[in-house]
Amino acid sequence: MEILQSLSASLLSPMVLAFVLGIFAALVKSDLKFPDELYTALTIYLLFAIGLKGGMKLEGLSLSVIGGPLLTAIGLSCIIPIWSFHILKKLVRLDSTNAGAIAAHYGSVSAVTFSAALAFLETSKIPVEGFAPALLAVMEAPAIIVAVFLAMRCATTNPNSKPASFKPLLHDLLTGKGIILLLGGLVIGLLGGQKGFDQVAPLFDAPFKGVLALFLLEVGLVTGRRLGDLKAAGGRLVAFAIAMPILHGLLGAYLGKLCGLSLGGATVLATLAASASYIAAPAAIRIALPKASPALYLSSSLAITFPFNIVLGIPLYFQFAKFFFQP
Questions:
Q1: Which of 68, 200, 229, 317 has the CB geometry, 3.0–4.6 Å to 249, for a possible disulfide?
Q2: Using one digit for the tens of pLDDT, what is the confidence trace for 55-98?
Q3: C-alpha angle 113/45/244, rounded to 5°?
Q4: Could you write out the DSSP letters of every residue in 150-210?
């Protein structure tokens, strides 16, 4: 009954319904389209707002409080791409380049899925630690670096292969808009504190869910247009794109409890572990592994895992966390 209630709350939220509307509009070939500039503006708003609100809530917290969760998040981001890479090679039967590309996406995180989880928990009146955006920030880059390293190491066995250098990859990851906006927002929110945030709250607090709904409408349009890529993905990759988030969500919820997070915090960590990047990872993979197939890594992360997490995954991970928090 509790699972059905959580699922109902997720499915009937304006954010999820906007995402479904986007998919429907794409499938019926509607002329609905977001200008590229608006999409970029919505992305900037969401990332900066997440950082600002998280930084404001960091005020007064010590390293002893946030150290364990941060190390746990980084550890997850490093470990997930390792077993994902080997599963993709052995069971899904992909070559090293494509296995590394997809593993990078599943080890990294989705800021939009994170935002949807926060909205779900807020609707359910479940509190979340203020440093949750810091978990998002530290999990974005390590997985991509680990997965690319695995792919490059395997590629060195082929004398005709010349993998890309790590230098441009690291620069792109550390100076990309995702990291700059999240970390910059965290610092500004921390320095300004509650008083500083109150000055910009009319723009970055109340409108957040509305902007998220618009963004998910656009993502629904993109997802709907890429549903045809599932034919190229194959049944094994589809199974991977659904099974791995569930396993990672279960692991994230358990580790969240162990490292001292609250019920809401453990749900967020579970959601981050289960999410798949479709913004930062594709940009990095285009530089580091240019021979990887976008039809494979985008269709798995964006057309399969993202809809699964938005519609079914988040309430499921919440139930995982509740199970581990039972006395």
A1: 317
A2: 787 777 777 888 999 999 999 999 999 999 999 999 999 999 99
A3: 15
A4: HHHHHHTTSTT--PPPHHHHHHHHHHSHHHHHHHHHHHHHHHHHHHHHHHHHHHHTTTHHH
